[in-house]
Amino acid sequence: MQEQLPLRVSLRDEATLENYHGEHNRQGLARVRQILAAPEPAVTVLCGGSGAGKSHLLNALCLAAEAQGDSALCLSLSEAQHLPAEALLGLEQFRLVCLDDLQALPADPAWEEALFHLHNRVLDAGGQLWIGAPAPPATMHWQLPDLASRLKAAAVIQLRSPEDDDLLHLLQARAASRGLELAEEVGRYVLRRAPRDTGSLLELLAQLDDASLRNQRRLTIPFVKTVMAW
Fold this sequence. Notes:
Elements: H1 26-37, E1 42-47, H2 54-67, E2 72-76, E3 96-100, H3 109-124, E4 128-133, H4 145-152, E5 155-158, H5 164-177, H6 184-193, H7 198-215, H8 221-228
Parallel strand pairs: 1-4, 1-5, 2-3, 3-4
Helix pairs in contact: 5-6, 5-7
């Protein structure tokens, strides 16, 4: 077997199944848990627009799998632009393989064939393949008919983008876990100016946390405005 390229990315410890917020995605989260707990091999596509929490859930799935003693890997296909298609070789050694940003897969027959074979190898090995995409694979264009048919047969879980109250709840809960108090008016001020995706919001919160510790300041609107140069 060819040597596997070093694709492992760091998992975010704060992105778990337990703190995935969004009341309107409760059924989707229940379905995610159901599939994860099932012993049989499966291919599942998480669909949704920016901020729906696809990357959060893929990260959370890997953490949950590792917590129960399974091996897991999470990779964004946005990295594929800079790698050969052989990068997907050997990933079936992981019980759980999560591929984010399906839309970033290079429009290259070699990459489509590599994903097709990875799909088959993961199932043959008894594993689970989870994929994050902005839309169901059936609506996307594929050059390789065999890959198209495999992806169209996958289970699809549609996630809705969060509303302001969902994002505020997320920020306040994550701030509390850091020992920070985030007042509602401060949280809503952040939401009016920050990117809407949860990854960017959590990075921003980490930045505010560091600034708060360095300056021994509470999170107020003037302080946030100064730190973020808004």
